[in-house]
Design brief:
Number of helices: 25
Largest sheet: 10 strands, mixed
Number of domains: 4
Radius of gyration: 34 Å
Number of strands: 21
Distance between the termini: 43 Å
């Protein structure tokens, strides 16, 4: 221990004496380790840590899928739930749930908050222990007994000031009083941190009946019994579906053609499925940055150790054995990396606060991201590993150096000098390779992002303001009341100065809230094995298409004459029109919605018919890149099926956000108890949909820029050092007749050799990791020649500039001075 303390003190003095080297290495480590600490904090919190729920690895998510009908991932029907309760015995608890917006009065103003509607079994399954009161009982999942509510900790604090008497009091939700039975603890959260209240979920006899099969509206989760597995659960679900095929033969052909199946998967895995590839890509990128920084520091250490060869030889001659010298070298580097890790942790902590600006706050489990003890220990361990690896290079060089020759002009012709030179050149070539790989990745992501931006959404998002409104069933109980409200609201909004067009819709593009339903064309004959389709279904008012800039390709738009008393009409998009009426005009044709499975073959008397009055352009609903191969969309007039939940779309002459206060005032004049919520421009919604592609692109470009800088510095440093070490050689060459141009080309050629080797290794590495990038790209291949050539050009230009400076310095060498110095 005493020797270690001596080594530490001596190392600190040496580093202080060589402050330029220490500061350069320290800052490099701070940047590289800080980036790694920040990204690892995200990876650890989102991907590596279990959900903050007891035994979360036992939770299983279950959902239906109809891939050949254009629905890769549906939810679950109520009959599915009761079937599985009865016949799937690998799960000790099962529950249906979903989130929904509800209206409450907060500080005298109507506010829209998020509620979790769940079967009472869900809180039992999640092993939730109430902070106050109790959780829901099983009986409160029956109709007529469901007017109960549980508060989250934040809601309890905000609405009731954390008073104990909150339990037992009432909270009006959508105008209906609900009795508060309990308060959940501060640490409890299930999937959505925006949830403010929990409500028991009940079902009517109609919802539970077989007529509601494949009416999928609810998410489902279960908890595995001890010893049971997801694979066993999947087997039981498959067997249950097979039995139901035989129990309900009217569905068999339809479901078979649609590719119907049920998926059981780990809830933990599913929550982060969309973020996994992106985060691992970013983690790999920052590790490359760290490698490049470590290589730079290694080269600095080699240069420094070469300059200290006489000092080390003197200490060796005075009795310091090689193990002691080795320990001293390693102590200095480890001290440096530990200091770098401390600074890196601070930079990483600050970096986490900045990452929200590039969209990482939109990740699943983003509320759990923090710099915890695991991140701190990982960062310190990573720094120690880097420090040891860096130190091994000069230690290896020391053990293969003849210290007795160190007194003779730095051992100019010794093999150790040539070996150290080879190591430095190899390290620089690896830097170039790593930088090339990072730049290639950044270039591909940038090119991919540009292609995504070039995708037309099918509507004109600017300048359009959107806002949601939800009508409580208690005061808007029938269609006439809902229709009257929508008519009055549009009249008032359209009369506002600056409003050009306004409309209402049940489903807004890029909102994340969609509805789909089967529809067929009259007279259309499905071929054998052809699947039914389930296009997007939307209710809209006159003015909606104009406000969104959606073009009417043929026929007409909805008008005020399309009322509940007029013939039922429908507008289809171009994609759905091609599906049913390829090459012909669908205007005037009829469509129908099946009322039962028999309607799929021969429509019965209860089938609902609609006349096609128009065709509109196809629009993107879920994002510029849609993950599911949807088969089009159709629109009904909202007047013929008024909805309680609607979104207002307003095209303005100027800044759309300036209209919000006026719209609120008009809404309040109609009904002061209705909140206007989810207020965003369409441009903001489109921009938000790009976060999952913009974030990795921006961060990778930043990391690539750092890598490019470090690689250029490394190349410059090696060439500059070689020039300083070869001054005598250069002087001899010039004395024997070589001119400045020849010396310039000699040094520049060595730099270009290193660049060429780095390019070759980097290209090989880029090919090796191409599959990791593939899932992040759109419209471009992972080995796109244009991008790779562009990246090579940028890296080549920067490296050429870095090589030119020492080459020019070498070319200006005075042979007389060079020979006299040596």
């Amino acid at each position: 221990m005493e020797r270690l303390i001596q080594d530490v003190r001596f190392g600190v003095r040496l580093l202080w004496r060589d402050r330029v080297f220490a500061l350069t290495a320290f800052l490099t480590l701070v940047v590289c380790i800080g980036a790694n600490a920040a990204i690892f904090a995200v990876v650890n919190s989102v991907l590596l840590k279990p959900l903050q729920l007891p035994d979360s690895s036992k939770l299983v998510l279950i959902y239906n899928a109809y891939p050949r009908a254009g629905v890769e991932r549906a939810s679950n029907g109520v009959p599915d739930y009761y079937d599985r309760l009865r016949e799937v015995d690998t799960l000790e608890e099962q529950a249906l749930y979903n989130t929904r917006g509800v209206t409450v009065a907060l500080k005298g103003e109507p506010q829209r908050i998020t509620a979790m509607l769940a079967r009472p079994s869900l809180l039992r399954m999640l092993k939730a222990e109430p902070l106050r009161g109790r959780i829901f009982t099983e009986e409160e999942g029956d109709q007529g007994r469901e007017r109960k509510v549980m508060l989250t900790y934040g809601t309890w604090q905000e609405m009731f000031g954390a008073r104990d008497d909150a339990v037992g009091s009432d909270l009006r939700i959508n105008g209906v009083p609900h009795s508060i039975v309990g308060v959940l603890p501060r640490t409890f959260s299930f999937l959505n941190p925006e949830v403010r209240v929990w409500l028991p979920l009940t079902f009517s006899p109609a919802e539970r009946s077989d007529d509601s099969r494949h009416s999928n509206n609810w998410s489902m989760v279960g908890r595995l019994k001890p010893g049971a597995s997801i694979a066993q659960t999947q087997q039981q679900l498959d067997a249950l579906n097979a039995r139901n095929m035989e129990r309900f033969p009217q569905f068999k052909e339809i479901l078979t053609n649609a590719g119907f199946h049920t998926v059981a998967t780990s809830l933990e895995e599913d929550v982060v499925r969309g973020a996994r590839g992106t985060l691992y890509l970013l983690w790999g990128a920052v590790l490359f940055v760290l490698l490049i920084g470590a290589v730079n520091i290694t080269n600095l250490v080699l240069v420094r150790s070469s300059g200290r060869s006489k000092e080390l030889a003197t200490r060796h001659a005075l009795g310091a054995a090689l193990p002691r010298l080795t320990r001293q070298l390693m102590t200095e580097i480890v001290l440096l990396t530990l200091a770098g890790s401390a600074g890196g942790l601070l930079v990483g902590y600050l970096g986490l606060t900045l990452l929200t600006n590039v969209g990482l706050d939109q990740l699943p489990r983003a509320d759990e991201i923090r710099m915890d003890s695991v991140v701190i220990l990982f960062t310190i361990a990573l720094a120690l590993v880097v420090g040891v690896l860096i130190a091994l290079v000069p230690v290896f060089n020391l053990r293969h150096t003849n210290l007795s020759q160190a007194f003779r002009e730095e051992s100019r012709s010794g093999t150790a000098g040539r070996g150290a030179r080879f190591v430095r050149r190899t390290l620089v070539a690896s830097q170039v390779a790593f930088a090339f790989m990072l730049l290639a990745g950044a270039g591909l992501l940038l090119a991919s992002f540009q292609r995504v931006l070039a995708i037309s959404p099918g509507f004109d998002p600017d300048p359009v303001m959107t806002a949601r409104i939800s009508l409580p069933a208690l005061r808007y109980a029938d269609d006439s009341a809902r229709y009257a409200f929508s008519t009055r609201l549009l009249e008032r909004v359209r009369s506002l100065p600056g409003v050009q067009r306004a409309g209402l819709t049940s489903t807004l593009p890029f909102s994340g809230d969609y509805s789909d339903s089967v529809i067929l064309a009259e007279g259309y004959k499905m071929s054998p094995g052809e699947s039914l389709i389930s296009p997007f279904q939307t209710l809209v008012t006159p003015g909606y298409f104009e406000s969104m800039g959606i073009a009417v390709r043929s026929g007409r738009n909805f008008t005020d004459a399309d009322t509940a008393d007029s013939p039922r009409v429908v507008i289809v998009d171009e994609r759905l029109a091609r599906r049913f009426w390829a090459g012909t005009d669908p205007v005037g044709r009829r469509m129908f919605k099946p009322d039962n499975p028999q309607d799929f073959v021969t429509p019965g008397p209860t089938a609902r018919y609609y006349t096609v009055v128009g065709v509109v352009s196809e629009i993107r609903m879920s994002g510029l890149i849609e993950t599911e191969d949807r088969v089009g969309a159709y629109y009904f007039p909202l007047a013929q099926d008024p909805s309680s939940n609607m979104t207002l779309t307003v095209r303005t002459a100027g800044n759309p956000t300036a209209m919000v206060s006026s719209i609120r005032r008009e809404l309040s004049a109609i009904d002061p108890d209705l909140p206007l919520f989810s207020v965003r421009t369409m441009a903001e919604r489109v921009d938000a949909s790009l976060v999952d592609r913009r974030t990795p692109m921006v961060l990778t470009i930043v990391f690539a820029a750092v890598a490019l800088f470090l690689a250029a510095v490394g190349l410059y440093g090696v060439l500059a050092y070689q020039v300083s070490q070869r001054r005598r050689e250069i002087g001899i060459r010039m004395a024997l007749g070589s001119n400045s141009g020849g010396i310039f080309r000699l040094v520049l050629g060595e730099g270009l050799q290193l660049l060429a080797v780095g390019f070759l290794i980097g290209l090989t590495g880029a090919f090796a990791v191409r599959r990791a990038l593939q899932s992040q790209l759109y419209g471009i291949g992972p080995m796109d020649p244009v991008v790779l050539i562009s990246v090579a050009s940028v890296l080549g230009l920067v490296s050429l500039l870095a090589s030119t400076i020492p080459a020019r310095r070498a070319a200006k060498t005075d042979p007389l001075v060079a020979l006299s110095d040596n």
